[in-house]
Amino acid sequence: MNIFNGLKIRSLKELILTFSDEQKCINFLEKIFWNGNPVSPFDKTSKVYKCKNNKYKCKNTGKYFTIRNIGLFKNSNLKLQDWFIAIWLFTSHKGGLSSKQLERDLNLTQKTTWFILKRLRACSAFENNHLLSGEVEIDETYVGGKNKNRHADKKVKHSQGRSFKDKVPVLGLIQRGGKVVARVVPTVSRYDLEPFIFRTVNLHDTVFTDEWTAYKNLHKYYNHSIVNHGKKEYVNGNASTNCIENFWTRVKGAIIGIYRVTSKKHLQLYINEFVFKHNTREMSPSEKFMHLISNIKDCKMTYDKLTAK
């Protein structure tokens, strides 16, 4: 894949050499975002004048702007080279990347790297919005600490089974051999699960679930097959939920091994990251880098929004 001036970027070292200064990063982003036709972030219909020092002027508003006023980089004083390195590491680390690790990699404060990664997770959400078809496995899971690992005074009563008093429910759908989509949901009732399923899976296609009652009406809209986990049944002919359960295993492994703990407020951002990594698993590191950086133009996530209660 040609990334910049005909080069193929195969490693982090090559990325740093290719984008060795701020101007090269600016030129690259202007090519990716505008392709020679700069667009004002203040008025997309306005004529734009090129000025000195990488600045542009919006004719209709009289305001000046640069490529750094666009998407992910808006209101950020971080060097673009640091952003590029962070994007490369974020997309290439299969198991996840912690803010502490990125702090060491970039020699920045942990507060800064926390914000960088939260922004990147928010910007990766475009990969979590696919329409699935064919054979689709559906399963809900629960993310949160294990009750047995808590101190006696912190244990949550009546939290076994599908009770999620101390956990967050997440619904996942995976097209066999294809994409995955996952969302944090308010509850695991049919009233919260069905609307998302209907938006995500083509009607009349094939869906596989377990015996949970929230799925009992899916046969009215899909070719619906069930595996009864309560009876220790994990494969029923062609029916199983093994693919989506394998995805959940990777998600929980990363949360426990890399992130240790995730808040309810930010859990969807982490889910976005894991979905992005699954859906780009066939891409090379350079393709993943380009895939994300090409889709961050409209991404908006401020520090105040991330930290708001």
From TrEMBL:
Top-rank lineage group of the source organism: Bacteria
Pfam families noted in UniProt: DDE_Tnp_IS1595
SMART domains named among the record's database cross-references: DDE_Tnp_IS1595
TM region positions: none
Residue ranges of every copy of the ISXO2-like transposase domain listed in the record: 131-279
Protein name: IS1595 family transposase
Source lineage: Bacteria, Pseudomonadati, Bacteroidota, Flavobacteriia, Flavobacteriales
